[in-house]
Amino acid sequence: MRHVIALDVGGTGMKAALVGSAGTLLHRARRATGRERGPDAVVAGVRDFAAALRAHGAEHLGEPAAAAGVVVPGIVDEARGTAVYAANLGWRDVPLRELIAADLGVPVALGHDVRTGGLAEGRLGAGRDADRFLFVALGTGIAGAIGLDGRVEAGAHGFAGEIGHVVVRPGGTPCPCGQRGCLERYASAAAVGEAWAVACGNPEADAAHCAKAVTAGDPNAVRVWQDAVDALADGLVTALTLLDPHMLVIGGGLAESGETLFTPLRDAVRRRLTFQKPPRIVPAALGDTAGCLGAGLLAWDLLETTDATEVTP
């Protein structure tokens, strides 16, 4: 059965799949990233995982994978196939596409994890009926993907969609990016968890605990949550003013709170609109499979391009 390798490399774990031509997940697997052993060990682990997936396909699906898609966090130069920088993984300027292609002997596509997740949501998930959408992932940080007619815009330098570093509170909390008042310092799952831990006096508390306390009517939790929602709405309205999408697709850990997030967020965005057309604001549909599915789409797109080139006179 013809298939591709899809590998989603995260800060702590790797999710992988063998993906059929219709986006079918034929085999799924997970491994630890092993970042505690250093960046060289992480790269070796990614390569070893890809090789194991190739072997599994050859044994169980009758042939090895025809291509591979690999997605990673941080700054990614997709055109050169280089993982430029990832703070959580410690690597810099890793020619990952070249390394894995040499290991597997097949074409390899390298992509950015959130943009690729947005690609999957656009083709297979919540954004599949929208020609223009913005996908925003609310996790440890905040990142976005600009969806246009079945593809995702990377930008001139690979930074398109970095909504987490839109300044929403000028002069506010310092951000590791060097700015102050960035959106992700107020509305990411990590930021909500930190604010709630201080408010409730429990250093182990996180954003999920805060969401439960909001549902229970805790006034401190409601205050922390509303501060995050207001910051998120400010960032989203800036983005939709620039991009004019039909839909905002919200994913990541914070979105798992469901209407505890979406009801006040829709209200907060609506209150801020003047001339702008209100977009639909919907939860992401693919959950933690989005990265793998997106990596598979990258691989299939690459394979189709390669096949077309081979038959062109």
What is the topology?
Blueprint: E1 4-9, E2 13-19, E3 25-32, H1 39-60, E4 68-72, E5 75-77, E6 82-86, E7 91-94, H2 96-104, E8 108-112, H3 113-124, E9 132-138, E10 142-148, E11 151-153, H4 184-187, H5 189-200, H6 207-215, H7 219-243, E12 247-251, H8 259-272, E13 280-283, H9 290-311
Parallel strand pairs: 1-4, 4-8, 9-12, 12-13
Antiparallel strand pairs: 1-2, 2-3, 5-6, 6-7, 9-10, 10-11
Helix pairs in contact: 1-2, 3-9, 5-6, 5-7, 6-7, 7-8
Regarding CATH, which class of the largest domain?
Answer: Alpha Beta
Please state roughly what percent of the residues sit in beta strands, choosing from under 5%, 5-15%, 15-25%, 25-35%, 35-45% or over 45%.
15-25%
Task: Quickly give the structural class.
Answer: alpha/beta
Overall 3D form: globular
Please identify which CATH superfamily of the largest domain we are dealing with.
ATPase, nucleotide binding domain
Please compute the radius of gyration using only Cα atoms: 20 Å
CATH topology of the largest domain: Nucleotidyltransferase, domain 5
Share in helix: 40-55%
Mean pLDDT across all amino acids: 92
Order of helices and strands: EEEHEEEEHEHEEEHHHHEHEH
The main pleated sheet reads as: 5 strands, mixed
- DSSP helical segment count: 9
Nutshell version of this structure?
The chain has helices at residues 39-60, 96-104, 113-124, 184-187, 189-200, 207-215, 219-243, 259-272, 290-311; strands at residues 4-9, 13-19, 25-32, 68-72, 75-77, 82-86, 91-94, 108-112, 132-138, 142-148, 151-153, 247-251, 280-283. It is α/β, with parallel strands linked by helices and 313 residues long.
